[in-house]
Amino acid sequence: MKMDIDELLGRNRPVSIPTKSAIYVWGYNQSGQTGRNGKERQLRIPKQLKPELFGCTAGANSRWLDIACGREHTAAVASDGSLFTWGANDFGQLGDGTEERRKHPKKVKQLQTEFVKSVSCGAHCTAAIAEPRENDGSVSTRRLWIWGQNQGSNFPRLFWGAFTPNTIIRQVSCGAVHVMALSEDGLLQAWGYNEYGQLGRGFTCEGLQGARIINAYVKFLDDAPELVKITQVSCGEYHTAAISEKGEVYTWGLGNMGQLGHCSLQSGEKELLPRRVVALEGIFIKDIACGGVHTCAVTQKGALYAWGGGRSGQLGLGPDTGFFSCNANESESFLRNIPALVVPTSVQLITCGHSHTLISTRDGRIHGWGYNSYGQASNEKSTYAWYPSPVDWCVGEVRKLAAGGGHSAVLTDACSLKELCEFRLADSVNLKNASEIEDIASRTGSDALARLCERLRQHALEGGDCEYEDDETTSNRK
């Protein structure tokens, strides 16, 4: 079969190659967090959310900048700075002022005067970093907006906390009941609940705590007396991890499952101050991600280390990880309190859900492991994926990964004519033409598209739902 580029691209044939993005969401769907209008409780196959769901015309070259997953809600940032949210809304985490869940994406209207650059979802809250669309230079180019559980509003509200106004916000990360914001200067401020020391203040306390800068009044547990400049932070359920400018990892909060990466803890099952993970000494860490009770780190050379609770396979070390623990305990055979090498090389992106983990590698593939009851971790049909397993339903270059309580999301880009063709073919693939499209993909080196077709046919043979395409009629829901 001859591949006709004009036929594939139709009216969208470019003079110069444009960039198109795709969002794939799958897994648990009780609250509509996968963005589908159907009644399915779960969606085991990653499906691309069509542009029409976001109010765009069919076939539009939509672009996306960021995506995030909460426990049962999802948020995505479009290239025009618009923020869309969908899923559970019992604590106002969608930012529309209501507590009604929504099974399709809707623009957060209260942020239309802002150009949103990134988003983070906690269990029941959301935070976004944005810049005013009309800025005369007197306002910070990156400021923080928060809403949802414990954030004081069901609408987005501007939040400085302990930072001075116009502080440039570099990153924000939301946990189960606490939030961390990182400034461009490397300062961390934290707020929320602190019953396990997850705010890093040197003590525990009951009730909701206001924002305070961590290293303004405590020193990191390290030999060096100077304050540590932080470049990245990640919040787990009740623990926190951060990377310094030297590539060192610091953790604090609840450590009962080994999620802090220390041989022993200073305060029972908790670490109340940020403490360096000495097991990673001499290894430059570039990326960090926290799950419910586990933590993962990616080195500058692309190696992946994991530690913490692994009862659901989220460490990727197999069904029995106790062998690796420095404090062997047969009754806790799934704990791993010292970082273990899981993937030796080629890891590019990492994200952790509550009990599962996703990575992308340099060859463009996605792998996942951990709790898989809803298909959120891998293509496997097993309840647990104990080792890194492929997720082969997505085409395009992987730009962002996100994982929530029981669902996952991937943002991919098409930056070449070949990738645009792959997007078009992936949109049209079904059981009838899968073999033909797979043949085209194989002959043109489109590995991801070939794997998608292969998985679709395999899924059908195993008795799965063969309807890869959605028949539902969509409309402008902006």
TrEMBL record:
<keyword id="KW-0677">Repeat</keyword>
<dbReference type="Pfam" id="PF25390">
    <property type="entry name" value="WD40_RLD"/>
</dbReference>
<protein>
    <submittedName>
        <fullName>Ultraviolet-B receptor UVR8</fullName>
    </submittedName>
</protein>
<dbReference type="InterPro" id="IPR009091">
    <property type="entry name" value="RCC1/BLIP-II"/>
</dbReference>
<feature type="repeat" description="RCC1">
    <location>
        <begin position="247"/>
        <end position="301"/>
    </location>
</feature>
<feature type="repeat" description="RCC1">
    <location>
        <begin position="21"/>
        <end position="80"/>
    </location>
</feature>
<dbReference type="InterPro" id="IPR058923">
    <property type="entry name" value="RCC1-like_dom"/>
</dbReference>
<keyword id="KW-0675">Receptor</keyword>
<dbReference type="Pfam" id="PF00415">
    <property type="entry name" value="RCC1"/>
</dbReference>
<feature type="repeat" description="RCC1">
    <location>
        <begin position="81"/>
        <end position="132"/>
    </location>
</feature>
<feature type="repeat" description="RCC1">
    <location>
        <begin position="302"/>
        <end position="363"/>
    </location>
</feature>
<feature type="repeat" description="RCC1">
    <location>
        <begin position="364"/>
        <end position="414"/>
    </location>
</feature>
<feature type="repeat" description="RCC1">
    <location>
        <begin position="186"/>
        <end position="246"/>
    </location>
</feature>
<feature type="domain" description="RCC1-like">
    <location>
        <begin position="143"/>
        <end position="410"/>
    </location>
</feature>
<dbReference type="InterPro" id="IPR000408">
    <property type="entry name" value="Reg_chr_condens"/>
</dbReference>
<dbReference type="InterPro" id="IPR051210">
    <property type="entry name" value="Ub_ligase/GEF_domain"/>
</dbReference>
